[in-house]
Request: fold
Amino acid sequence: MKRKTFMIFVGPSVFMMLLFIAAPLVSVLWQSFHLTQPIYTQVEVETCTPGFPAQICTTETQIRPQLDDNGKIITQTTFVGLQSYRNVLEPERLRAALDAGSWDQLMNLRFWSALRFTLVFTILTLPLVIGTGLLIALAVNNTLQRIKGPVIFISLLPFIITPVIGALSIRWLFIGDGILTAALESWTGRDIAMFAQGWTIELMMYLYRVWHVAPFAFVVFYAGLQTVNQDAVEAALIDGATRFQRLRYVIIPHLMPLVVFVTIIHLMDAYRVFEEIVGFSASAHVLSLQWLTYEFLLPDGTGSRAISRASASAMLTMIGIAILLAFPLRRVWRDHKGR
Amino acid sequence: MSSPANRQPLGLKLVSNGFLALWCLVAAFPIVWITVMSFKSPLDAFDSNPIRVIVGPRTRDIAGGLSILDIVLGLLLAWALIRLALKWLPGQVRALSPEGRHWIGWGVGGGVFALATLILFTVILPAALGVLNPLAGPLGTDVIGLTTEHYRAVWVDRGFTRNFANSMVVTCGVVIVSLTVGTLAGYGLARSGSSFAFWLLVVALIFRALPHSVLVAGYLPYFISSSEWLAPIFGESAPTLYGKPWAVIAVLVAINQPFTIWMLRSFFQNIPQELDEAARVDGCSHFQAFWRVIVPVMWPGVITTGLFSFLLAYNDFLVTSLLLDAQNMTMVPAIANMFNRETTASDEVQAIAAAVSITAPLFLLVMVFQRQIVSGLTAGAVKG
Reply:
């Protein structure tokens, strides 16, 4: 295909990605070093309330945003260097917390607590998702032909459900004296409140994510199991390999590229953990990096949004994902070159 | 299947099938349970005793419910309709729709069938049962409490219909634009071996990893102030992009593009290159070859990719909640807002009803397109 024809075919797509992905990245980088603020002026205001015998008047100085001729707030953009990053990272308080050696103090810093949760979440759910997916795939592969279809149908439900709704539906099972909390209470004989402390909410988030993503791993592994070389399995059988050895030395190596694939996709998606925090209303206890950016972007009480700080936290989030993906992608790259 | 490597001892069979049953229970339970809850009055819905949630004694006292006769007749009707849809409908569609245009037939047939089902269950069945129930004695008395008031409250009183319409606009827009742009790019990438194509794919993969909040942080200030910086181009009528559904469509299409082109590329690679080369030999240009030879055979891949675009747009919370105003809010952020405001238990059950309403179309989607979803999930993986 000639270069020109190729460019016409991919042109619209490349244009969309440049305009809506690459350009915003540049602008985020720029915004993270700049601060846009309204220009404030001090105004003397005299407020009078009717009173007896005379009006009661008080004069006070108020700080008000300056308005232009159309009544719009005049804003000013200044270069602030790393100030926004400092606001997000809070290096002084970090140092204080580290000097004191206090974990609780460290977890009071929003960014560091979000980073801690995001990383733990990503790394802890990964083996669970792969393990659960593999077990389901093996079990479905072993079962009767007739029930495979319905089982796949049911398995897909947690995967396609809207993430916020999925999290909410788990929450409704546990909230207050919901049936699962009641079941846990009668089992342990203790009074349980799942939404009162951070670690139970976190636990539910891990479980929810495994519930949500395991079907994806299952479908991918199940497709891989269909292409396992049966001759190799039979050869291993003749050589006296036990069932576990066949799994370990024939089937798992065959699935390895798929494990890498699922790992990469899962790292990307789990690092973006966000919807769980909305669904479980967890922001008072648990924060994630993407939630942090989201929160800066929401209008605060006065209707202004902390764009600059959001950009700084977005840049830091991106650095994190780059480091996280470097390892599996390097492996793919080596395989690609080795071929 | 009869090879000795597949023979299993009984114990292993039991364990593996037991595990499978457990997984199915875990997978389906939350969804089934919130569906049950959504039909009960708040006291029953949040009862700690599961049997009372299912039976709903207090709902029955307040709002009535279903008798054994209702349940039996309803299940019979549902079973008959499913049989009809699986056995009779495909034959009719094939016989009546014009040759080579089966998808029109499926659209019309499915639509008519859905409408008939709706009328049967909401008008004809209740009317018939209204006559039969008093005659049936003990079989006709209500045993299971059931109320649809929460659905009515959500859809009628709270204006969820508007959110639904917004969701449909955004979702359909994303699917159509994303597939149009992505199909062209996917075909180009599949047929080009240049290093530029390779690097484009690598960059797309990196873009896929970006958290969406990073991108939204880039759009938001420009979207809010767009009437100012677009003024030199559009003059007085420069639009404010913030809150506009079509701006969100553009954003979601772009976010979805990396995934779409990867997936469509792998589908196009499966279409033999000889096919378009033959057309080229016969004197077609690249575009004619694409239009006449590739387009007619590409639909399975396009439908699969479209399903995933649909899921992305339909399920999105972050982008829509930040870039749309209250008037154009889609369903998912709307329910989250509803949820944050909720004060009474009745509000909470209404939120559950809304959640079930959002999930129902997805349920139908998996039912109809299960095979395409599975093939889509594996397409990217198996070919790497």
The first strand of chain B starts at residue 65 and ends at 67.
